[in-house]
Amino acid sequence: MSETPSNTLQYRFDGPEEAPVLILGPSLGTTWHMWDRQVPELTKQWRVFRFDLPGHGGAPAHPAGSVGDLTSRLLATLDGLGVQRFGYAGCALGGAIGVELALRHPERLASLALIAASPRFGTADEFRQRGVIVRTNGLDPIARTSPDRWFTTGFAAAQPAITDWAVQMVRTTDPGCYIAACEALASFDVRGELGRIGVPTLVLVGSDDQVTGPAEARTLVAGIPDARLAVVPGASHLVPVEQPAAVTDLLVRHFSTAWQPAFESSTGQMAIVAAPVKPVLAPPPQTPPIAEIAPAAVPPQPTGGPDPYDTGLKIRREVLGDAHVDRELEQADEFSGDFQEFLTRSTWGGVWDRPGLDRRTRSCVALTALAVGGHLEDLAAHTRAALRNGLTPDEIKEVLLQTAVYCGMPAAGSAFRVAQRVIQEETTPTE
Q1: Is 120 within 8 Å of 190 (Cβ atoms)?
Q2: Between the N and C ends of the chain, which has fewer C-beta atoms within 10 Å?
Q3: Does this model's pTM top 0.90?
Q4: Host H or E run for residue 412
Q5: Quick one: which H or E segment has residue 133?
Q6: Helix-strand-coil split of the chain, %, nearest 5
Q7: 384, 321 contact by CB (below 8 A)
Q8: 245-293 pLDDT tens trace
Q9: Residue 66 to residue 342: CA distance in whole angstroms
Q10: CB count, 10 Å around CB of 369?
Q11: What are the start-end ranges of the E strands in 176-306?
């Protein structure tokens, strides 16, 4: 194990030094120990490299807010060790890093395995909401419910020691790094780029995974030209922990064949069988991958720079949430459509994109102005936005208290009632 600076990752090696390197990437909330049961068999052929995400497993708490940033830190770590080419297997967020490697750094990657992965993990709103809950309540609510997301009910009941280990693993993660990793997943969306992945890929999923299940796995297989699908029965999201022997067998078979050019299949078909649990092999789906829905067309803009509408729509979605923005745009018609375009381009692409104030400060200004103006419906939306932009409930309270002093008690009183309701809704953990 190695202590690392902010631009690299905490890591460990297992296996013979002369063997080719196989990297195992962890999921959000876990440590490299999620791969413990795979290491003895994998080290017979490979030098296994495992890493921890920032703030996980005692790693230095240097938050990384994008999958690209995590990938850059991984490559910086490998560059420092002289590792140039490698195989890679990643679970969930670790799988997103694997996709990023395949898309942006294909020359480094010999073969790829994506476990419990997806081209887009849920919705951006879901992960930003999780960040709000952690910022307000800490990681304990997330930790207590992690076994429900990670394991089947029968496994969790039969393996109380592993269930407790899972809870403690999440509970000891740095909250700031967990929130940053949620933001990384919120902004990750490669649905339109899967066809550019050119390395042999195994897509592996538990049959009972309710987080990123077989449907997401089939989307990956349909989009990646040289991909195979393996479904492991009786397993949920953290399938390497729940069915270690099956996953180990699948990884050994994939990397010991697909890593060698002579064994690569031009059709992407390869028989995969794991023991003691036999995976169910599914043929590539006949339907195309889910297409990304483009925003409504806007008038063409002069060349020479990005359209502020596109920038504004991106910022508007990040601040207010996809659900809110989608609802506003869907309600627009011929009469109000021009206003929505103007709002997106001028307010969000013009003012909110300016570098002079950060988003937290702009949220403070917006809350004050909306409270004074009595615009309570918009105040509710911007209270949610303020929480997603990093303001705590206590900080929102201070903004409204100062509003009361300078702008009047009645306006602040109405604002407090709205903000109180929104904060309760947004920060109450779901069981």
Answers
A1: yes
A2: C
A3: no
A4: helix 409-427
A5: helix 124-137
A6: 55, 10, 40
A7: yes
A8: 999 999 999 999 977 543 333 333 333 434 344 444 444 444 333 333 3
A9: 30
A10: 15
A11: 201-206, 227-232, 280-281
